[in-house]
Write a structure and sequence with these properties.
Layout lengths: L1 E8 L2 H6 L6 H20 L4 E5 L3 E5 L5 H14 L4 E8 L2 H13 L3 E3 L4 E3 L9 E8 L2 H5 L4 H20 L4 E6 L2 E6 L1 H18 L3 E8 L2 H20 L7 E5 L1
Parallel strand pairs: 4-6, 10-11
Antiparallel strand pairs: 1-3, 1-4, 2-3, 5-6, 7-9, 7-10, 8-9
This protein binds guanosine-5'-triphosphate and magnesium ion (MG).
Amino acid sequence: MIQLSILKITEYGPWTLTLGSDREHELQMLQASLYKEVQKLFSEKHCIVFLNRADEFFVVSNGLELEDHIQIQKNLEKLFDVKLTISIGYGNSPFEANLKAYEGKKNNIILNTEHNIFGFVNGKSDSKVTIMHLDVDDLTSKRKTNSPYEISSIIFDLYSKMSKFFLEKNSLTFFMGGDNFMVISNDDAKKSVQEFINKMKTDDNIFLNCGIGNASTGRDAVKLATKSLDTIREIRDSGKEKPEIYELSC
Ligand SMILES: Nc1nc2c(ncn2[C@@H]2O[C@H](COP(=O)(O)OP(=O)(O)OP(=O)(O)O)[C@@H](O)[C@H]2O)c(=O)[nH]1
Ligand SMILES: [Mg+2]
């Protein structure tokens, strides 16, 4: 079972207008500091936060109860002028958890009125998180023939294809910066990652490595996924034939 907590700035659109039109730099600074604080507060509780379109956050919140969310809200309310709404959901796949959180908010299933928390909490029971960390093999060599902006265009095209492919497997893809992506996965996505790697090779001449991590919390699953990816690099750099996929569990 995977639990997701989706944080969204409350009434952000109307609030942005109160800043006048010379506001974009202010909004960018606010979004960056908000992200820093949200990542700090949730990672302290063994969760991992994925930035979604800069003004929304998807948290793999396995193990967290309503009380943990209230504590985090209290901290954020002290630090920022804007408030956040939290929608919590869980399911057998990350997409289902996202739907459940969405329905919780839409149908006004209130968990805590004062701190704007909606949805359904699974907490600590039956916790299982799978994260895949995908990274382009030797992006550095592409930099020799492509300018920085052309590289970005290649990476965003890859992001779009990855997001569509894994959404069909009920999994959610996030861009982490550089040439790094993470997929909040389930068994279905894990089984099809080789198909995606092969497809990108054939269609776009992009070579990917994929580290997989399985654990009971988001942060531990990410740690193992990254460790798996680094293991692929170590095998490659030792001159042996490298696997494209490597998996670790705890
Ligand atoms: N978010 C995130 N970014 C990373 C990580 N490691 C590297 N990066 C970023 O990815 C960019 C590309 O670095 P690499 O992937 O190491 O370069 P590469 O030439 O593709 O080398 P290999 O991936 O080892 O084949 C770096 O400039 C960083 O911005 C990571 O673990 N997480
Ligand atoms: Mg790379």
